[in-house]
Model the fold of this input.
Amino acid sequence: MKLRAHLVVSGLVQGVGLRYFILNRAVTLGLTGFVRNQYSGEVEIEVQGDRSLIEEFMKEVKIGPRAAHVTDIKIEWLKYIESYSHFEVR
Done:
């Protein structure tokens, strides 16, 4: 079942290569959407695709690249929309 998820990732998540790690994982899993830094110091992700793939993606985001330290991920499940053709860093 295709869904969309809005994630807000907290911790030591900016300036550590997390956005490009996320980009790589999303592309590898065939997910679409975007990732961007927030002024709050968090990282925002909107991702869509099969729920099982999004859940696998979230497990990898929790680990992140070596320099990152993810302390929390807030998730909101949303209705799938045909708005993204690929995954990008914004």
